[in-house]
Inverse folding.
C-alpha cells in the first residue's frame, strides 16, 4: 500500500525489546504501525533488540574473552537491533505495506568517538525523507550510530529511546511514542504499591527527576533531547490501547506527582514547584517524626524532596508516604 505523503504529520514510534521479543509480538507491533499509517501519518519506527538478545550477546562475548574491546562490542551489540528492524520490515511488506529497514548509519546518525556510550552529534535526514517521500514506513535500528572513523557506536542501555527522540527532533515530528510493556508513568511503582496511579501528563523536568531516581521508564538523554527541541514524548503499552502518559513542557505548580524509592534507603518526592509547596514539606517532616525515622540527609530542590534514611526503608513506608501525599490528593 502506498500513499501521498506531502503535508502529512510525521510521528516516530519506538518499540522496546519486550514488544518485539518474538514473531507473535512483532505481529502486534505491525498492526499498531499500520493503524497509525492508515490515519495519514508519515511513520518512522525505531526498534530495540528482541527480548534478551543484547544480554545474550554480551554473555557469549565474555565467554570468548575477559577483555573485550569496546569497538568490537559495539559491532556485535548493534546486530541485535538490525535483526529486529529487518524482521519487522519483512513482516510489514508481507502485509502489503511498503517498509524499509535502516541501520543507524544508513539513517544518517553521526556520533562522537565514544564506544558503548556514544553521544549523537548530528542526523542527516536525507535518506529518511527520501524513503518517506516514497510512501514507505521507515524502520531504524535503535541504540546505534556511526563515528568519523566509520565505526559503529552504541548509546548504552536504553539508547533506543534516545535514537527515537533524536530522530523525532531532526524530523520536527509531531509526537514521539515510546511503546513498552507498561502503559505509562505511575505515581510510584505499581508492582509494589496497589494504589499507584497512572499520570496523564508530566513535564520534562519531572520525568527527568523520576528517571534519575532509577525508575526504568525513559532513558535520561531522550528526555533532555525532548526538552531541548520540545518534542512531546508519549509512553504507551504495546499490548493494549489505554491512554498513556505525555511528557512535554507543561508546568503544573506545587503538585506532587511521583514518589520513587531508590536503592534501600532513599526516597524522592517529585513534582514541579515542590519547593513552594510548604504544606507538603511540613507533612513530610511530620511523617518522619511520627514514624521515628532517622535520616542522614534531606534536600529540597525546585522539583524534588530527596531523603536518605539511616536504616533500610521497606515498601510499607513508601506506601504510607504515597497515601499521605498522592492517594488523597484531589488533583490526581
Amino acid at each position: 500500500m502506498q500513499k501521498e505523503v506531502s503535508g502529512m504529520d510525521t510521528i516516530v514510534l519506538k518499540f522496546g525489546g519486550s514488544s518485539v521479543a518474538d514473531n507473535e509480538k512483532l505481529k502486534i507491533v505491525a498492526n499498531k504501525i499500520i493503524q497509525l499509517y492508515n490515519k495519514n501519518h508519515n511513520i518512522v519506527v525505531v526498534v530495540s533488540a528482541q527480548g534478551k538478545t543484547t544480554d545474550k550477546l554480551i554473555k557469549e562475548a565474555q565467554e570468548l574473552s575477559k577483555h573485550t574491546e569496546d569497538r568490537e562490542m559495539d559491532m556485535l551489540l548493534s546486530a541485535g537491533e538490525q535483526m529486529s528492524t529487518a524482521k519487522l520490515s519483512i513482516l510489514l511488506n508481507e502485509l502489503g505495506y511498503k517498509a524499509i529497514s535502516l541501520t543507524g548509519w544508513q539513517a544518517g546518525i553521526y556520533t562522537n568517538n565514544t564506544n558503548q556510550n556514544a553521544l549523537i552529534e548530528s542526523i542527516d535526514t536525507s535518506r529518511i525523507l527520501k524513503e518517506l517521500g516514497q510512501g514507505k514506513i521507515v524502520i531504524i535500528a535503535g541504540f546505534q550510530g556511526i563515528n568519523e572513523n566509520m565505526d559503529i557506536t552504541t548509546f548504552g542501555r536504553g539508547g533506543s529511546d534516545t535514537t527515537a527522540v533524536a530522530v523525532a527532533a531532526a524530523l520536527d515530528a509531531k509526537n514521539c511514542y515510546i511503546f513498552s510493556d507498561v502503559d505509562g508513568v505511575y505515581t510510584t511503582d505499581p508492582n509494589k504499591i496497589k494504589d499507584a496511579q497512572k499520570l496523564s501528563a508530566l513535564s520534562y523536568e519531572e520525568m527527568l527527576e523520576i528517571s534519575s531516581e532509577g525508575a526504568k521508564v525513559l532513558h535520561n538523554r531522550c528526555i533532555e533531547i525532548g526538552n531541548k527541541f520540545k518534542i512531546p514524548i508519549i509512553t504507551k503499552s504495546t499490548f493494549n490501547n489505554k491512554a498513556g502518559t505525555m511528557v512535554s513542557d507543561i508546568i503544573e505548580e506545587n503538585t506532587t506527582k511521583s514518589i520513587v524509592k531508590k536503592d534501600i534507603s532513599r526516597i524522592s518526592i517529585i513534582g514541579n514547584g515542590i519547593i513552594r509547596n510548604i504544606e507538603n514539606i511540613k507533612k513530610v517532616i511530620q511523617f518522619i517524626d511520627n514514624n521515628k525515622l532517622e535520616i542522614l540527609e534531606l534536600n529540597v530542590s525546585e522539583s524534588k524532596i530527596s531523603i536518605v534514611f539511616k536504616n533500610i526503608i521497606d515498601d510499607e513506608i513508601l506506601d504510607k508516604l504515597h497515601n499521605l501525599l498522592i492517594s488523597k490528593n484531589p488533583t490526581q
DSSP finds nine helices and 16 strands in the chain. The chain has two domains: 10-181, 258-327. Residues 112 and 294 are 45 Å apart (CA to CA). The longest helix spans residues 70-94.
